[in-house]
Amino acid sequence: MIEIAGLAKSFGPKHVLRGVDLRVERGQSMVVIGGSGTGKSVLLKCVLGLVRPDAGRIAVAGRAVGEGDRDAFLARFGMLFQGGALFDSLPVWQNVAFRLLRGRLKRPPDQARAIALDKLRRVGLGPDVADLYPAELSGGMQKRVGLARAIAAEPEIIFFDEPTTGLDPIMAGVINDLIREIVTEMGATAITITHDMTSVRAIADRVAMLHEGKMRWTGPVSDLDNSGNPYLDQFVHGRAEGPIAAIR
Question: What angle do CA 55, 26, 178 make, to 5 degrees?
Fold first, then answer.
């Protein structure tokens, strides 16, 4: 579904991506791990066409990113943002149905609301939440609303950007379980970026490790603990010593 080859991107003198190769099969849940500032978010932005790479090729379902109808391309994607990114001035149901109330996916308001209520139910929120505003929700509830919005338009591909950041361990576990269930039910292709190893083990089919702009390891989640890769081994076990230099 997604094929990335030789992807490079710099911002001035800072080389963020240095020849990244990654292949994500249709219906697969890929988790990209790595420390802060290693280029994980830039990688997703390049796939979405929000950032233009300096070199390399990205193809989605066999078609190069940037070719064809831009709106049709973006309609294939759903996104759960790290900070929730809910619109404070809109009630919950309009946040969930945001894409269904405008643009090429536009539906009648009553139909859009019905879909929003159904997606809220899917993430464990009742209709009593629909007319509240984001500020009236807890952090965990806001994350669930963000997840409902990500799946509202039945996307083929879903990106999850640090889905459990800021959540307590119990709520993080709930969100991880929801992501795994929903991706499986929808048959969607998923890329999650995170540094939370609990999320990795709960969500991933395959894992890719990005460090200093290069993919250092890619493999099945079952091989995480016995990869033989010094970068992955240090990261997974949180060791100060190894090829990844700690900031002191």
Answer: 110
